[in-house]
Amino acid sequence: MNAVKYANKLLFSLTLLVVMALVLSACAPAAATSAPATEAPATEAPAGGPTLEPTPIVNAFGECDDPLILWHGLTGSDGAVFADLLEKFVADNPDVCLHSEGIPWDTFFQKYPTAVAAGTPPDMVIFHAAEVNQMASQGLMMPMDDVIFNDGTLNKADFNPSVIENITFEGKTMAVPFDNHGWLLWYNTELVKNAGLDPDNLPKNGAEFIEWAQKLTTDVNGKHPTEDGFDKDNVDIWAIDFTWPRYTVPTTLWQFGGDIMSQDGKQCLLDTPESVAAIQYWHDLMYKYFVSPPAVPGKMWAGDLYKNNRMVFMWEGTWTGGFMRDNPDVAAKTKTAFINSLAPDGKQAVKLDSHIMSIPTGVDEDGVAKAKKLMAYLANNGAFWATSGQVPAKLAVQQEADVQAIQSVADAAKEFNEIGRTTFAHKAFIEIQTAYETAVGNALASADADVAGELKKGCEVIQPILDRP
């Protein structure tokens, strides 16, 4: 690629990724979301004032004149564990020092392409597997095959094959997986027992779950949705909540046999009968059976409901391990399990993603060598990272005794390896993601929303994106 074409490509990437930054952390209209601990919200200014740019979390480890520069978005509770791991790396590798910046994701996706375009990239970045295809298509990433895989430092066969497929672009492996993360079922065994149900024998399909949900949901007067006088506007205990659409939507679509788009990336599938049935199920949970709070802005976050003994089944991420660690009284009555199937036939599926390690385009040989050493170290020392609640990316590390001793991590590792799927890889990933989240948000916005109609509108936005050359 000549210099002019390359510069133009990076300029386009910069413009597009600035737009991406505005939507990455945004929730779909009219649908409340809950973000993981690694998705730190922007700092809010006083009412009526401008939004303040979040301050990066900067850490220096070791002392030298030319440190390894690392940028990442691990700014939540798992960020503290990550900082400890970096400190351990420097202690074990005294010839390397590093400068780490934890940057909230919206700011990260502005700084990253800007730095590459300016010729001043960090030596290494960490973001998500789901975004790799788009980043790679815009020339922002260096292929990793010759850097770390072909010489045997790491072996692609040691990682979840779905993740490896998702980070492969035009036949080249563009990153190294750091962890696997995604939805896991967290449930309150005490509330299950109080309803006369067995916490060790969970519902197997969507119909069974509705039966459970109606017994678990209770209004402030102690009545259930099946009883006369149930007050749907004053529910005390909910059976379940529609949590972060970015994980809940693909998981439910796949369970019902639907999807957002076809595997070849040519056809929108959001309006197929299977996809409509999946979103209609959530609509019915909210507005027909009254066992899930309506997905409207301003509702209480699922974790707060759960923490206050007001929700039984919580679809949340592996990062919830940190939440449980900080709330031992809640953890004492919580169990984890494979995500429960809502499909009529009990089909199982769950979305997983991965924090991935990458070297930006333009990093010099010395920076590549230092990044390679850190990547290998982080991949091989995933057991320490597991204490954050995340699943180590290397399959062998997942089986280590220290990892298996953390029940939620052990359960999530098994779940991801057996039924986990990564979401679609597409060069317009963020644009498509925004479109489907908007469509689903509108479909769940009210009791009289036309689910099929809103999903059809979603495809009317997505299909032209897929049709682009």
Give me a quick take on this structure:
By secondary structure, the chain is of the alpha+beta class.
Fold and architecture overview:
- The protein has 469 residues and is of the alpha+beta class.
- It has two domains: 203 residues, D-Maltodextrin-Binding Protein, domain 2, CATH 3.40.190.10; 210 residues, D-Maltodextrin-Binding Protein, domain 2 (3-Layer(aba) Sandwich), CATH 3.40.190.10.
- A six-stranded mixed β-sheet has the order 1-3-2-4-14-7, with helices on both faces.
- The radius of gyration is 22 Å and the shape is globular.
- The N terminus is likely disordered.
Which key features would you list for this structure?
469 residues, alpha+beta, 13% strand, disordered N terminus
- Quaternary structure classification: single chain
What is the β-strand count?
Answer: 16
Overall pLDDT level: 90
Low-confidence stretches: 1-52
N- and C-termini, Cα separation: 19 Å
Provide the structure class.
alpha+beta
Strand order, largest beta sheet: 1-3-2-4-14-7
CATH class wording of the largest domain = Alpha Beta
Characterize the main sheet.
6 strands, mixed
Helical content (DSSP H or I, runs of 4+): 40-55%
The global form is globular
Query: By CATH's scheme, which homologous superfamily of the largest domain applies?
Result: Periplasmic binding protein-like II
CATH architecture of the largest domain: 3-Layer(aba) Sandwich
What's the number of helices? Answer: 20
Radius of gyration: 22 Å
CATH topology of the largest domain: D-Maltodextrin-Binding Protein, domain 2
Beta-strand portion reads 5-15%
- The count of domains is 2
